[in-house]
Amino acid sequence: MYPLALFLVILVTTGTASAVYGHPAAAGTPAARFWEEALPGTPMPEAIANLIQQGIDHSPLVEHFTSSSRRPAAVDLITYSYNGGSRVYAAVPPGFFFLESQVSVGSAMTVSFEPAAMWPPILPRDVAQKVPFSNLADVLATFHIAASSAEATTVGETVSLCGAPPPLTGGEQKACATSLEDTVESATHMLVGGGSVRHHGVVLWAASSSASAVPPAAHHQQQPSFVVQAVASLDGDRHVGCHAMPFPYAVYYCHMTGRPSKAYAVSLRGLTAGGSPAVTTMAAICHLDTSNWDPAHPAFEMLRTRPGGAPVCHFMSYASLLFGEKAANA
Fold this sequence. Notes:
InterPro entries: BURP, BURP_dom
Domain BURP: 97-326
Number of helices: 9
Helix content: 10-25%
Structural class: alpha+beta
Protein name: BURP domain-containing protein
Keywords: Signal
Distance between the termini: 24 Å
Signal peptide: 1-19
């Protein structure tokens, strides 16, 4: 079975213990049990399971945090931060944004990967609730980070972004979460509002990109080349992206733009592998309506388009999560 087929099984299998625990690392943990109840039929992605286990085995409270230990592709967020009312964009690697027309079998794609070891551990919810987050001074003191260091600047950016209000126009929703449970609940609230998912007659799915099958050569290249082997549409026309942020422990920035979107599972085969080519499956989201985007957004320059033009797409990075919904009787 191809990796894309495995990815799709994750989204449609009925919820059983063996199915939900798609990777044994987190099996039996409170986070895994919560995931099974909140997202029946969606096995926990391997990347998430590994980070949950790391949060149990290697507490960031006793391990030094450095700014280089986790510097995520913050351009996942579309806008990274605000400075005096102006948008400040993260550096965008070549090929990060692409057109929806490229999401087709046979298309060549340029993809940037970061080593899995660079992602922060996911703390158990009861631990995360006791660890400082919103007060920068408390965070720096707890994790023994010097106020004048690069690490402090990195952590401060995350605290600032999470504390900023959502844009006043466009209907965008945002929230930051410090545990897997809070992340799932934030996405659920954005998609279906208050109350339980089942009360609204919908079921949610979650997807994450997997870089575990990336060809060995790709780990040493910033933009390895791939070809699209298979494509499958994922349900829904509204999606919530939850992106891992640079912090001593896992903090997810979740947002929904308020504009229609499409989501895909894209199976990529490496063109530059040493030896037999390997395949990785990536979750992708395409923003269909960019009419309210900043004309200076780097996607427009990269794709030679404009606000309100062709849909703008990007892959979700490893360990980030994409949520969507479908009718319960579908």
